[in-house]
């Protein structure tokens, strides 16, 4: 999926295309954010949000019952390939429209008709998906922090109240970091890449070298169906959710494009490299965990199957140390997720698409970052996790909202790019003649995975096993639709242009 060099007829314009300020001004926006991210930093955002350690450890237990090792390993490979198609299609669009508005902005620009409506719904899907990602990652971190506490002090009781309280503290600290230590956040995003790479290496080598016994290679073809559904194919498809949940948030590179140097090239590279590196690292980690399983039934029935694997294979002492790596990865993931979430809110509010837009898109004169948007992201994430105070199915619902919201938001501009055909004006990073076939494959996968996440995940279906994702997503879309028809359709026409390139250049605040 390598980018093809710009055609010769575009050669004379390439210097202009790679001029970040000129590109932003041509789209009608003045520069308000500092460009402090280079290609590696842009890659680091999405790589950290995808976060194979966080994704695999938090959802591994579900996969043990929905397909088992066969789907955990080979499902990972299949989903990785499909997500690469999605990332490549998004990369082409990001190269053409490198703005913080990302998905909703490009949807408005690519639509032939009803640009305001396409942009509006894409933005709200992206918003709810990003909020779900921030909330789910914080909740997962709180769960594993408590698993660590139980290993240290067995008398500790895990309750919904304590999980919500710890998640709230995590969200608060991440919001404070994004408010007061912006340079530190950028540095932590760089560190997070090495934390993930070194962390995966340590966990894999520990599981490969310390235990005396491992599962045979044939064990990777072992199929398990504990979903309650008799149809094995349906159970296997449900197992793909483990990999799909992990591969979310790579639009973070797109949202950070206004803070990225040479964004028309660096942003799509950040998207593609984050997916490719995550696919390889995640496959190695998945195989290591699967091969280290001792008693399958006992492990699958435990409250935290990956932790059980570490304890059985390595002993409690080593397992505690590795669990610290897992918790650190989840905290890095949440921090990067909130940073990306904030930029989406900033851009959406900048175009007047949110209540109190003037408030949310304001930028701190000290840090040159949208501080108020940071606290909106933290507050909405807190609201999303509060039902965990009394419900045990909240995490699955939040994850589903995260995945469905984001992937539908990914799919809309890709679909509109297909409808535009040859009229689509490509950026310097593009796929040439493969652009449309890749986009078609991406849209097909997005439709399939989105439907899958909204179907029942276990049987019998009761109030404790019901998949609440369709209801949560439906409520958001209903509110967005009601607001659209009541008011926004008359006031919101899609991405706003603040003037000609020369006019917006004079508005630059940096």
From TrEMBL:
InterPro entries: AA/rel_permease1, Amino_acid_permease_CS
Any Pfam family the entry gives: AA_permease_2
Source organism (scientific name): Streptomyces albipurpureus
Location(s) in or outside the cell: Membrane
Chief location of this protein within or outside the cell: membrane
Source superkingdom: Bacteria
Keyword tags: Membrane, Transmembrane, Transmembrane helix, Transport
TM annotation in the entry: 43-64, 70-97, 118-151, 163-181, 193-212, 232-250, 271-293, 313-336, 373-390, 396-416, 437-456, 468-486
Membrane disposition: Multi-pass membrane protein
UniProt-recorded name of the protein: Amino acid permease
């Amino acid at each position: 999926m390598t980018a093809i060099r710009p055609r010769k007829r575009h050669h004379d314009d390439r210097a202009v295309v790679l001029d970040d300020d000129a590109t932003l001004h041509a789209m009608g926006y003045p520069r308000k954010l500092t460009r402090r991210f280079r290609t590696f930093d842009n890659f680091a955002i999405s790589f950290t949000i995808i976060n194979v350690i966080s994704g695999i450890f938090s959802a591994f237990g579900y996969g043990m019952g929905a397909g088992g090792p066969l789907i955990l390993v080979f499902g990972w490979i299949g989903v990785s390939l499909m997500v690469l198609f999605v990332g490549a299609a998004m990369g082409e669009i990001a190269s053409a429209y490198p703005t913080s508005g990302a998905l909703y902005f490009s949807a408005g620009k690519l639509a032939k008709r009803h640009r305001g409506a396409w942009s509006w719904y894409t933005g709200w899907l992206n918003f709810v998906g990003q909020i779900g990602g921030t909330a789910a990652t914080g909740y997962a971190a709180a769960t594993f922090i408590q698993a660590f506490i139980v290993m240290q002090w067995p008398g500790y009781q895990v309750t919904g109240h304590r999980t919500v309280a710890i998640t709230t503290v995590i969200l608060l600290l991440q919001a404070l970091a994004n408010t007061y230590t912006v340079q530190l956040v950028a540095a932590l995003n760089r560190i997070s890449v090495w934390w993930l790479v070194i962390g995966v290496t340590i966990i894999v080598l520990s599981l490969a070298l310390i235990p005396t016994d491992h599962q045979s290679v044939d064990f990777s073809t072992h199929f398990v169906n504990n979903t309650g559904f008799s149809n094995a194919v349906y159970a296997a498809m449900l197992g793909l959710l483990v990999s799909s949940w992990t591969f979310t948030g790579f639009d973070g590179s797109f949202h950070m494009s206004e803070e990225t140097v040479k964004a028309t090239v660096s942003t799509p590279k950040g998207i593609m490299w984050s997916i490719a590196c995550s696919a390889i690292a995640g496959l190695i980690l998945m195989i290591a965990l699967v091969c280290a399983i001792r008693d399958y039934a006992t492990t699958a029935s435990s409250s935290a199957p990956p932790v059980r694997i570490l304890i059985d294979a390595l002993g409690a002492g080593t397992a505690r140390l590795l669990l610290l790596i897992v918790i650190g990865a989840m905290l890095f993931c949440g921090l990067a997720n909130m940073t990306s979430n904030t930029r989406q809110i900033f851009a959406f509010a900048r175009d007047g698409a949110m209540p109190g837009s003037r408030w949310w898109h304001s930028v701190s004169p000290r840090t040159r970052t949208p501080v108020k948007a940071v606290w909106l992201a933290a507050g909405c994430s807190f609201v999303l996790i509060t039902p965990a105070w009394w419900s045990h199915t909240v995490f699955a619902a939040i994850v589903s909202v995260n995945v469905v919201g984001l992937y539908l938001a990914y799919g809309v501009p890709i679909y509109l790019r297909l409808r535009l055909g040859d009229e689509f004006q490509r950026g310097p990073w593009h796929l040439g003649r493969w652009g449309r076939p890749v986009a078609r494959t991406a849209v097909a996968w997005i439709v399939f995975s989105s439907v899958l996440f909204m179907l029942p995940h276990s049987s019998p279906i009761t109030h404790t096993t019901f998949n609440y994702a369709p209801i949560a997503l439906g409520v958001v879309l209903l509110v967005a639709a009601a607001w659209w028809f009541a008011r926004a359709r008359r006031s919101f026409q899609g991405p706003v242009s603040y003037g000609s390139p020369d006019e917006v250049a004079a508005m630059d605040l940096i």
